[in-house]
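Hi,

I'm pasting everything inline rather than attaching a file, because the server keeps stripping attachments. The sequence lines come first, and each chain or strand is labelled.
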Amino acid sequence: MEFDVVIVGGGPAGLSTAIRLKQLAAEKGQEISVCLIEKGSEIGAHILSGAVMDPRALAELFPDWKERGAPLNTAVREDRFLLLRERSSIALPSFMLPGVLRNHGNYIVSLGNVCRWLGQHAEALGVDVYPGFAGQEVLYDESGAVKGVATSDMGIGKDGKPTEAYQPGVELHAKYTVFAEGCRGHLGKQLEERFRLREGADPQVYGIGLKELWEVPAEKHQPGLVMHTMGWPLDGGTYGGSFMYHYENNLVAVGFVVGLGYSNPYLSPFEEFQRYKTHPDIRRHLEGGRRIGYGARAITAGGLQALPKLVFPGGCLVGDDAGFLNVPRIKGSHAAIKSGMLAAEALFEALAQGRARDELDAYPRTFRASWLYEELHRARNFKPYTSRNMYLGAFLFGVDQVLLRGKAPWTLHHRPDHTKLKQASESKRIEYPKPDGVLTFDRLSSVFLSNTNHEENQPSHLKLKDPDVAIRVNLALYDAPETRYCPAAVYEIVRDADGGNPRLQINAPNCVHCKTCDIKDPTQNIVWVAPQGGEGPVYVGM
Amino acid sequence: MKILVAVKRVVDFNVKVRVKADGTGMDTANLKMSMNPFDEIAVEEAVKLKEAGTATEVVAVSMGPSACQETLRSAMAMGADRAILVQTDAELQPLAVAKLLAAIVKKEQPQLVILGKQAIDDDSNQTGQMLAGLLSWPQGTFASKVKVADGGIEVTREIDGGLETVALKLPAVVTTDLRLNTPRYVTLPNIMKAKKKPMETVTPESLGVDTTPRLKTLRVQEPPKRKAGVKVADVQELVAKLRSEAKVI
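And the predicted assembly:
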């Protein structure tokens, strides 16, 4: 099937690209066909974010977003920042907070609901929105330019052969294809390699964000309260921190981010999150409530210096498929929307000139001149400062921001996350407390709340390049770290009754599509590919 | 032969629902909605009959708010030829649904009506039977096999302890059980085609049906949490506990 533009991914970046294109087409009286595919079963099903949203980009996309009923209902009323110690905490007075940590004028939202709303507007504008279809393969024309994507086949059995229900995927061809898969998109990763988009850029670095949604008693609910912490339970050498947002209907979003550059293979981001909730200053917000949602997603954390080249013949990367997240602000949705809009403007101009399958050079150029570039430039040194030591790094970043206003004449660099894992023999085992089933939970009861589902009879969508490495390297040297960093209990070492013959069992149906394994596996032996469309988590209000 | 298929929009089967904090019902805000899985089986069966040349037209019907259009589009993407939406924001109970379906049957004159045996939201398992009663048509419920044979159909029913095969004269009502078939995956080209298929919207008033609820929901609550089990040392203790604590023997 032929379209002018095909967009892979229905998050804020992809939807904004589609919307802006259709807006421009309507303004200029031009016909542009736009097709957007999304691997989740509906728009918003795979969206997981904190989230505090800066409405700046949304207001550029829809100046009347309020009248249109955008679900940005809870304005931030109070910012708190705590340094946690095991039993106590120190609140940082707000005058000491750098501007990037102030959220006045921002809104606490469910980004999933924002995307559902954007999806309705995209459809109303005439975008062909197709949730339930995963981009499986990038298609190239004879000249080597991207000519579109193929959606995945449905109904392939575990043995790799078509079942009775088999339906072949379809090829979607376009003049330009936009990749908006979010952090560590599996097609974006291939494009980066093929077109050498990372030449001259730092390696991308990542974090894993885990989130729970709680419904708390009305008397404990403080709508508009935003609280961030750093410190306990992580040690100073591990990058990470927490967020807690009180938003509408007695809901509290609570989450924890751990930088994937951590070195101890015994560290479990999931368990750190559970332990964090037991801190007296955290548990008092949640006690008496009930947990109603759970999920996890990797986020990009490399900032400006890790941004790859954005364009290649026949297409571009938008949102976190490129990595526009502003790390110290822990915000990416505004950047995703803005990058989508900039790409759409370049796409529209190219299409109006009758161009096809060339490089959209206007997109990187207008990005360079945009407020988004300026914003990311100021923030660029936060992650490198803090990746060695959170406390010292945060102090240095404060100096950078307050005294130098983000204009320090130096830019610090990154090393890839998967190279930072130490071997088990050099590392200290971490004993995590048992879950109580009230405030803290185990992985399986958590995954249950993500509503994730996958057809059991299909090839595993988590591939091992070399199956032996799982035991020979991962287990022998690192004590199988995938069993700890996976937030959905996908990876398990099983043994015979006598404890011998260890094997890696991959429970792919549990997967919540966070992509952490694809990032953190020490030898990059695990490859995440898209399962059948319409599967994976079904997040509600996340 | 024309086939009418009834499809209901329900909370997706993968999504865990929860009771509203005030106990007035389920919290369904922002939940993913899908076609009732038993109704998907009904659509699949009708489309298969059409593909086999037995049926000439498949008409999908849904009832509820305008969002039910999505469910009807899914039915058409699976292969239904056209759709009818009975649009209302009012609560519809099984009897009202059966009456509305009966009114549509009078208009459309299908030879066969296929419905899911029940919807996964309220699990009532009433609409098909009530519809057959209102129309005075024969019914084959809980079908795991449907065979069309001269002038009638044979329906194999899943009953307690086995299977029962009934022969029905047409027109008839059939409700589907899980094992009847496996619904197909919808393809992108078929979703696109479904957007162009005709969809008619009517209202309960235009059909002359009173949909006033007859049942009142007093309270909705979650089932009590299962208590943790205990380990017993031997058979004697087990029997003693079954007798004195569980009081089941």
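DSSP finds 15 helices and 24 strands in chain A.

If the labels don't parse on your end, tell me and I'll reformat.
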